[in-house]
């Protein structure tokens, strides 16, 4: 294998250490700088495509291979097929950095700053595409690695995660492409880096949102029910009792049980069960939110959240379902003959569901995978004062999935200027503050409750107003600036 491809693979693997649980955020810049440095010596777009593909394949195989656990250990897919499925999926994800590399090498011209802008704009746009195409898979978008204490975290309330990705790529490319021994290019490079550092410092001092109402006492419950046992009929009574017992032990203004904490349809629960589950919270003058499967009169099944207690009962149905796990894309019925995934024929909830009104707070629910899509979460703003995610990551065992998902929640809190509450089955149950800091977290794979006071917030960040539009416009603008020399040269040749 050529040295360039080896270096690209190393750079892709290194990128994973920028994310949780390692949190060495500057390795994100190191990884993309190394990739850009390799591309500097590549002349053919075809060779560049291979280089970017190898970077992406290494990054995603190292970063999201925990999907194998869901397919093989809990889904029952044979080991070779599960391994092949993960390799093919990561190969698909690797196409996005591959196209970035190919287009960059094909059209780069001009100064180092102009070329860096072209690379950053391409990176940003293709990450947006990855987060949208075929319902999207934005996991490991590079911007997620830049949660505090990264100086780029301050840009999240303005540009969102994709904008942060673009800034990271820009800094990395400036470092890799600038001829630092030449005075003028070096001065321009330092000016860019210093300007972003100063801008991030002052943005970090801006308060985009403000407290709303009084703090409330919250109990975020972690049930820690093993995925391999959750759906066994002989254990159902035990799991029902576990939920009641935990709710009884941890009454509060708001008590939260995780996604699908009751492993059956709500209309099949024993008579009086939901009343017993809600009784402790109601007695304390509060409310309980739990994850449960609901069925409507037409027979459609929803992965939902249900509130019970002092406030009127309300529901939220998951809108952004997981392909293959919660519904079958067209022509993929054969997939379900290879795996055994309970409740895998679900229906999407309505697009614009209002926040739950619980006491003085308005709580916007998102379920598991939904919090990867910041542009969808901001639909609940400015009404929502709190964000609440309920998840079940037991599907992925003891892996990077839990800390990576918590890091994603930190980015959502930054983007919206709202606290993000998380109640999970096996981890990581936590409270994330509007500045992206983690105020409290339970150890993974332990049963218990995080008892903590939570303050609601109101107001809008720039990202909450405009979503990904500002980042996309910035990315497209830098691409056009980067393409200008090539366009000018073509015009002159044709004149």
TrEMBL record:
Keyword Transferase: yes
Chief location bin: membrane
PROSITE patterns referenced in this protein's UniProt entry, alphabetically: CN_HYDROLASE
Pathway in which this enzyme or protein is active: Protein modification; lipoprotein biosynthesis (N-acyl transfer)
Compartments in which it is found: Cell membrane
InterPro entries, A to Z: Apolipo_AcylTrfase (IPR004563), C-N_Hydrolase (IPR003010), C-N_Hydrolase_sf (IPR036526), LNT_N (IPR045378)
Topology relative to the membrane: Multi-pass membrane protein
Enzyme type, top EC level: transferase
Residues passing through the membrane, by range: 6-27, 48-69, 81-105, 117-139, 159-180, 187-204, 469-487
CN hydrolase domain ranges (all copies): 221-456
Keyword terms: Acyltransferase, Cell membrane, Membrane, Transferase, Transmembrane, Transmembrane helix
Family as reported in the entry's similarity comment: Belongs to the CN hydrolase family. Apolipoprotein N-acyltransferase subfamily.
Described purpose of this protein according to its UniProt entry: Catalyzes the phospholipid dependent N-acylation of the N-terminal cysteine of apolipoprotein, the last step in lipoprotein maturation.
Name of the protein in question: Apolipoprotein N-acyltransferase
The organism of origin for this protein: Aromatoleum diolicum
């Amino acid at each position: 294998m050529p040295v360039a491809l080896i270096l690209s693979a190393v750079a892709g693997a290194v990128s994973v250490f920028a994310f949780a649980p390692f949190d060495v955020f500057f390795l994100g810049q190191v990884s993309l700088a190394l990739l850009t440095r390799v591309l500097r010596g590549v002349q053919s777009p075809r060779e560049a495509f291979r280089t970017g593909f190898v970077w992406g394949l290494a990054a995603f195989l190292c970063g999201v291979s925990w999907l194998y656990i869901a397919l093989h250990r809990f889904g029952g897919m044979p080991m070779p097929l599960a391994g092949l499925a993960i390799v093919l999926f990561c190969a698909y994800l690797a196409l996005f950095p591959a196209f970035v590399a190919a287009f960059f090498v094909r059209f780069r011209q001009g100064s180092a700053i102009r070329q860096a802008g072209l690379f950053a704009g391409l990176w940003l746009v293709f990450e947006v595409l990855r987060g949208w195409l075929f319902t999207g898979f934005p996991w490991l978008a590079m911007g997620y690695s830049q949660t505090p204490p990264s100086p780029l975290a301050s840009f999240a309330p303005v540009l969102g995660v994709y904008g942060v990705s673009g800034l990271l790529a820009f800094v990395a490319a400036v470092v890799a492409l600038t001829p630092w021994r030449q005075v003028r290019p070096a001065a321009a490079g330092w000016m860019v880096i210093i300007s972003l550092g100063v801008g991030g410092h002052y943005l970090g001092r801006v308060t985009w949102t403000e407290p709303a109402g009084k703090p409330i006492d919250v109990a975020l419950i972690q049930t820690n029910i093993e995925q391999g046992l959750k759906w066994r009929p002989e254990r159902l009574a035990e799991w029902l009792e576990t939920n009641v017992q935990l709710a009884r032990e941890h009454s509060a203004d708001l008590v939260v049980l995780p996604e699908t904490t009751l492993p059956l349809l709500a209309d099949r629960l024993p008579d009086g069960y939901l009343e017993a589950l809600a009784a402790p919270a109601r007695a304390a003058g509060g409310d309980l939110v739990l994850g449960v499967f609901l069925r409507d009169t037409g027979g459609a099944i929803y992965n939902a959240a249900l509130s019970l207690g002092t406030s009127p009962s309300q529901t939220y149905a998951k809108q952004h379902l997981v392909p293959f796990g919660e519904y079958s894309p067209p022509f993929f019925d054969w997939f379900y003959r290879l795996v055994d995934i309970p409740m895998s024929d679900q229906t999407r909830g309505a697009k614009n569901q209002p926040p739950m009104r619980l006491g003085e707070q308005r709580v916007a629910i998102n379920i598991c995978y939904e919090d990867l899509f910041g542009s969808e979460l901001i639909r609940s703003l400015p009404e929502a004062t709190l964000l609440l995610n309920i998840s079940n990551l037991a599907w992925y065992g003891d892996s990077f999935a839990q800390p990576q998902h918590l890091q994603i929640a930190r980015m959502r809190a930054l983007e919206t200027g709202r606290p993000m509450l998380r109640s999970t089955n096996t981890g990581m149950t936590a409270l994330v503050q509007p500045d992206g800091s983690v105020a409290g977290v339970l150890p993974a794979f332990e049963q218990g409750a995080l008892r903590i006071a939570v303050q609601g917030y109101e107001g809008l960040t720039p990202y909450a107003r405009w979503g990904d539009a500002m980042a996309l416009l910035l990315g497209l603008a830098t691409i056009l600036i980067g393409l200008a020399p090539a366009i000018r040269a073509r015009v002159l040749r044709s004149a």
